[in-house]
Amino acid sequence: MIGRCHELPLARQAAVLGISRGSLYGAPRAVSAADLAIMRRIDELHLDYPFAGSLMRRDLLRGEDIAIGRDRVTTMMRRMGIEALYRRPNTSKPVDGHKIYPYLLRGLAVGRPNQVWARLAKVPVAKPLE
Fold this sequence. Notes:
With 130 residues, this protein is mainly α. The protein has helices at residues 10-17, 33-48, 54-63, 70-80, 115-121. Helix 2 (33-48) packs across helix 4 and helix 3 packs across helix 4 (70-80).
């Protein structure tokens, strides 16, 4: 598709195709066998500890005598499409369009056992024997 002998310059050819101009000059490098072994171990650790981020995975790998830094672990995780599973911020904020249910117990004096359950289920409650 991209021709170096074409009458259009490489930058214009890349713009027409909608690809990055920088991707024209460098060929992708193959992943080394050592990196593949580390990536396989990161994947195994992800199954055991899905909540672990790059720092914790780095420490787990260093505990197995694999000398690696956090940035390298982050790069490998990103390449594999792995990310830590944990609660994200702003998850308790309401979303537009969701129904807001009213609080049904406001102003109700709870004076006997199971009164609230009977009230919510709208089942008639027998009066307790006195």
